[in-house]
Amino acid sequence: MSTDKPEKAHRKIHINEVDACREYRFPSNYVSTTKYNLLTFLPKSLYEQFRRIANLYFTVVAALSCFEALSPVHWSSTIPPLVLVIGISITKEAYEDYKRYIADTEMNSSTVLVWRDGQYTDAQWQDIKVGENIKVMCGQFFPADILMLKSSDSEGICYVETMNLDGETNLKIKKALDHTSSWSDKDVSAVKGSIECEVPNNLIYNYTGNLYPGRESNKYPRSSFAHEPKSDINDDIAPIPLGPVQLLLRGASLRNTEFIIGCVIYSGHDTKVMMNATDPPSKRSAIEKGIDSIILCMFFLLFLMCIIGAAACAQWTQSRGPDMWYLIPEEPDTLEFAPDDAPLLALANIVTAFILYGYLIPISLYVSIEMVKVAQMVFINMDHKMYYAETDTPALARTSNLNEELGQVDCVLSDKTGTLTCNVMEFFKCSIAGVTYGTGCTEVERANARRAGKDLPPDPIPPHKTKGFNFHDDKLMDGNWRKEGHPDIIAHFFRLLAICHTIIPEGLPDSEDGVSYQAESPDELAFVMAAKQFGFYLTKRTATSVFVQEKNADGSTTETEYEILNILDFNSTRKRMSVIFRSPSGAITLYCKGADTVIYERLRTTGNLFKEVTYKHLEEYSLTGLRTLCLAATEIDPQEYAEWQVKWEEAKASLEDREGKVAAVSELIEKNMVLLGSTAIEDKLQNGVPECIELLGNAGIRLWVLTGDKQETAINIGFACSLLRNEMVQYIVNVDTPEVQAAEALGDKQAVESVTERCISQQLIDSLEDIHKNEAQGILVDNALIIDGRALSFALKDGICQHFLALGLRCGAVICCRVSPLQKAQVTNLVKESGNTTLAIGDGANDVGMIQMAHIGVGISGLEGRQAVMASDFAIAQFRFLERLLMDHGRWCYKRIGRMVAYFFYKNILFGLTLFWYNMFAFFSGQTIYNEYFMTTYNVFFVSLPILVVGIFDQDISPEFARRYPRIYQQGPQNVYFNFKVKMAWMLNGVYQSCIIASFVMGCLYLFSDRKSGKTVDLWSAGTAMYTCVVCAVNLNLALAINFWTIIHHLVIWGSILLWFLFLVVFGYFPHSWSTYVYKLFIEVVSTSPTYWLLVIVTIAVCLLPDLCFRVLQRQFFPEDHHIIQEIQAAHETAHTQIGSYRSGQEVEMGKAGKTGPIGTNPRTNTEALLPGGVPGSSPTSTTASTHARRAS
Amino acid sequence: MGDPPLKKEKEPSYSAFTQQQLPACKPLLTPIVVVIVFFTLGVVFIPIGAIALSASRSVVEVVKRYDDHPDCTRCLSAEGVIGECSSNSDRDESLYNTVNGTGYNCTIEIEIEDKMEKPVYMYYELNNFYQNHRRYVKSRSDEQLRGEDPSSSVIGEKCDPKKYQNEDNEEETDIINPCGLVAWSYFNDTYSATRTTTGGDASDVVIDETGIAWKSDVDDKFDDYKATNFNNIPEVRGGGEMGGDKTVNKDEHFIVWMRTATLPNFRKLWGKIDMDLEKGDKLTFVVSNRYNTYRFSGKKKIVLSTTTWLGGKNDFLGIAYLVVGAFCLSLGLVFLAIYLKNPRNLGDASHLSWEKAKRKNLG
Fold first, then answer.
1. pTM value?
2. Residues annotated as region Disordered (chain A) (predicted)?
């Protein structure tokens, strides 16, 4: 296996032989997370900017405008806005990158002790090299991925915190190499040898390698300091297997351990944390994609205008130009005026027109949208209604790209555990030796009872209630279990709970706080807590043993040491976990806990008396929504164990497919087990989940729950969280059909496959037909689909998936049970491909695929690590916050952005077209009627702020009324605000208004004097009048469109118009060389003309009339949903102001409503009482009972 | 919830602003509001329209085209008068044949049809003259006009194609000042008039040609200097010279001309007649017909007009206000009728789209 050359699959490291390692060219430990450096910043960031087609376009325009002969406008009106727009974006990039650089520098120059020249010296992180030994002190971060050789602990154990890696806050235990852990510090530090291990990869939990003792290092010249007798590992020792338990990862920190010594294995960008650093997939919202199509449309219009203009210009110049002596046709200029060369003139004129009418394409749109979205993002992050005080977690928008997509969600795909539930496991029931214990009622049972019309009394609060333990049964408590039928089995059962896990106890049992537990899984924590309550108190874990204080019958305690021989880890394929231990008596026992299916397969065929009855209990438990595990044990013959141990070590040392081999070897010993019983753990629904789900349902959002639970559990949870309701027709698709069973009995695998496939397909089609039949008969019921993981694997196949999708989309609720992470992503993809906007929400690593696949990924920042959050676009602490995120933020953002984009194009069309209309009367020569400064500032000063404010603050209806009429959410998914009709209406409005403004101004101000003193109007004062009309119309049209006015709205809308006049006045006083035509134009010429003022007023009135009429007529005859709700809201608010008891509905907190309000109705019904009589909210759908009363303690 | 409250380090600051709960006014377009808005618009606009229209109607305006007047269309060959020119090209030709392009005088008679109270403004009007062509508008040097250092390199840089008096000889001494097409094509017809009352008394009409330009133009935009190389050479002359001792900022006709017009048809103020003109008065204008509009088939007109507070005779505003006002008023009536006859219950939840869909499905 060992070769001298570095192979692709392996890397070889010579400990303490930095020179020898050099030939492999390992990267230095300098880590840079910056995107750019000083040299590459400009080109790279510019390249990024110019990938946006609009920026490229504006650059072309700006470049063209530098040719004065060609350009109708001065470069000063095209280049500054472009520089500003690109500058803002680049500055943002630079700032962010600089922050990264500072963080990098800080990290790279932090110091660590390195073994050099026979002693430990401080060295900067960036200088340490692969193969060097380093010493990390308590609290320090590991500078690279390190193979731990020794720790200050005599057992070679150390604790690490991996918060930065996976977000888990519990300490993890790591163990130094057995062979070196007992050496002296000096010996360890000077050790020689080589390590062969995998090439760097991004698998945090995997590492395989072998340590070859010092022999090979002889080939390389030794450093002068080195050789001491013990510091070479003995040549005779076989390769020593290395595993993840010895690997300390960069990004983690050392805790509760004085120091560790280890060898650097992966450095710099090879470290696992860096290999994992990937940018989240960039997602774009539907509206953003829509912008592209409008821009294309605008381009078409632009080219059309250019061609019409150029053709007319060329034709006129050719026919009439020779006679226009005042333009000197004898001295033609091909770029402006060339009667004798019309084709060339036309070409040049196209370019001119292209620059002039370029205002059709809104340059500031992208940067404005970016600003608005960042502000929206801040609102999301600042939202108190999405702040979870219990864990001090605010909501986090990790990207600003998708804010508006939140308002268009068709389908929510949700994980169950940790997402709908708290992921706080409580030991609730158990079945031991065929007897079931535990008297509580689960939420599911209560929900079932409610459906049956009964109401269960709340459970008494168990006297032993602690975290993770919600068990109530006197038969087992206080040592009473000894009086039960099989006390020996019960003792085993409890001992198993106390021993069979990977929990690390911390602290002393006698101290005030007692022992605290560092658990990787909440289930295990619940077990250990339960064991403690039953009198099996786990107090201490060392490298080789666990210590349990066992309560004797007389109430005294004895501490027993169990020597842990092996831990056969849990993983998702094995679905079980075992420990092999030696009790003080010397007997070797295997304890195993795992899923019922895997445990039942491995039970001994005889002597398992409680198999059937336990199975019945298991079914009961899962029906009531509990998570079950089976516990089993077996004695192992020492001889047999010794033989097995050899194979185990071999498998553990293998470099290739170690996991597979270990699993196979484990299989050899996990057999012949005796069933002890089963545990039932309750994972409580999070606060407000049923209400939130019901609301989402009422909002017309489909909810698909993808869970690993069994079908029965899933269905029951479905009822508990209001996803399923009694009146729903359930379609259950699974593989438990007679045909499939018959085929399975025959044993032909292929036949089974094809039969199953046919069968699933048939079930889907039948269900679909059934729904169609019901609809045809006018039976309107909600449907629900429950599909099993195995069935799903067939349903996702080509040819069948359409049926599955069609059926799924017909159902108000879909539950997929026993799905794998991959299937979650596949289902998400299926729904996404069908054109539905999907939102995936989950909390665990198994949800990452689905979160990345969906249009929007939401991570629950909860207990199960941060991988889901890292992959997500939005992170919230509780499922119920989804309601606020979608119904308020999403809905608002969608409307805001939609309105904003449409408005942007409207205002630019309006502006661009006035120039075109004017040019019809200016020979299409490309003459502007506006001063260059007006043109430049149009998009920046006078019309941009109001729409930004609307984009950030606009609200159509209050959150309270959005709750009362949740269906209003459908305006997003149905794209009511940004569909073709809306966009068209805005654009036509722009075209109309441009016609009105151009014709009114030109019609009124062309010949006649506009004042008493008889002076006539010139080009620039007419332009000022026209521009005034444009600015006012554009701002007032926005004022017409909104019906939510805060002080900020007033400020910006009226302020923008005022600003324009202020600009005219102030700029008019600038020196003539600056202000050119604007010089005293307004003060002296424009404002003194009564015609100007009257003209502006009537023009604006005519501009706005159609829009006003349209709005009035629409409200009168075809009111949209939000119109009606606004009216209801207005009536409501007036009523409440009048009676003086106005209380903002926004103050009703969801959480509170969840606790005190009736379940199964609209969560807002408690505010309904405040309403003036007779305004119907959505009517209550079922009777009420407080699920949460029990928890309200 | 027995746990002590956690440290709330990350708790977002709470304010009406951050929670999007700023007090807001939420105006609604209810039928009443709409009717009121339209009625108000109507009630305000119609009187304005009436006033504006009556102001415009009270203006007396006389327009007389003279470029096609027989007296102004005499054909001149190099040798002398040979009769009346019938085509524009002949007229164009004949204008060139006048001595150094100085044109010839023609006499136009205008009869005053309505009493014109002083001051009466006199304009010349040009048609089909693209003073707003980009090449034309651009071709000027504001620096030069402002009187900046004539040796500065920016001087005249925008004046193409009329920067040098002689294009073949691009020397600094040859730079036209003021340069550019606008200045070069300076309108140079001149007018003088005599008035003959119905009683037959004839008297000279004093046309006050001062105060026709904007003060800021005279003070700041045009400097006190004499034109050089300006339309001196007849062969390359465009429009008028700036004669005599008059400096640029004293030549108000020039300053008016330099403010380019919006559209190809435009009027520019020529002067002010500070006397009342009675009905039946005959004004006899002696026009020195020099400016060539024949070549591009343009028209030249003399306009006499009184003004009101609103300016000249322009019905546009009055009619616009009347029409818009009437339209609003009738819209107001229509909406009132709709509201009275077919009132929509405000905030009727049964009109919500999903409620309708439900009813439709049930029915």
1. 0.80
2. 1143-1193
According to the annotation, is A1121 in a ligand binding site?
no
A1051, exposed or middle or buried, with CB in 10 Å at 0-12, 13-18, 19+? middle
Would you call the peptide bond into B264 cis, given omega within 30 degrees of 0 as the criterion? no
Residue A738, both tokens: 């007679």
What pLDDT, in 10s, does the model give residues B240-282?
887 677 888 889 999 999 999 999 999 999 999 999 999 999 9
Kindly list the distances between the CA atom of residue A1006 and the CA atoms of A756, A812, A921, B144, in Å, as whole numbers in the listed order.
83, 65, 11, 28
Best interface-test mutation with B: which of A382, A888, A1008, A1051 has the largest number of B CBs within 10 A? Answer: A1008
Query: How far is residue A508's CA from residue A505's CA, in Å, rounded to a whole number?
Result: 9
Check whether B168 has a pLDDT greater than 60.
yes
Residue A922: its chain B contacts at CB < 8 A?
130, 132-134, 263-264
B358 pLDDT exceeds 90? no
> Mutation test of the interface with chain A: which of B262, B295, B351, B362, choosing the one with the most A Cβ atoms within 10 A?
B262
Identify which of A232, A234, A274 has the alpha carbon closest to the alpha carbon of residue A251: A274
What pLDDT sits at residue A605?
Answer: 83
**Burial letters A471-483, b for 16+ CB under 10 A, else e:** bbbeebbeeebee
Pick from A1006, A986, A1004: nearest CA to A994: A986
| Closest B-chain CA to A328 | B161
d(C-alpha A1190, C-alpha A1169), whole Å = 25
Cβ of residue A1189 closer than 8 Å to a chain B Cβ: no
Q: What is the distance, to the nearest Å, from the Cα of residue A187 to the centroid of all Cα atoms in its chain?
A: 49
* pLDDT exceeds 90 at position B228: no
Contact (Cβ atoms closer than 8 angstroms) between residue A254 and residue A128: no
- Chain B residue with CA closest to A1176: the answer is B349
Flag residues of chain A having pLDDT under 50. 1-7, 215-235, 1140-1193
**The two structure tokens encoding residue A761:** 């397909």
CB contact under 8 A, B349 and A387: no
- Say what the pLDDT of residue A653 is: 74
User: How far is the C-alpha of A551 from the C-alpha of A533, rounded, in Å?
Assistant: 10
Residues 6+ apart with CB under 8 A from A17: A131, A192, A217, A220, A223
Positions of A marked catalytic = 415
- Nearest chain B residue (CA) to A952: B20
Residues with Cβ within 8 Å of A845's Cβ and at least 6 positions away in sequence, in order, are: A821, A864, A865, A867, A868
pLDDT for the residue numbered A1135: 82
Tokens of A777: 């008969």
Taking contacts as CB-CB distances below 8 angstroms, the residues of chain A near B261 are 1006, 1016, 1018-1019
Q: What is the pLDDT of residue A554?
A: 82
CB B61 within 8 A of CB A1014: no
Model confidence pLDDT, tens digit, residues B114-146 = 999 989 999 999 999 999 999 999 899 888 898
The pair of three-digit structure tokens given for residue A1159, joined into one six-digit string: 């379940």
Q: Tokens at residue A770, please?
A: 């059934």
Cβ pairs bridging A and B (under 8 Å): 302
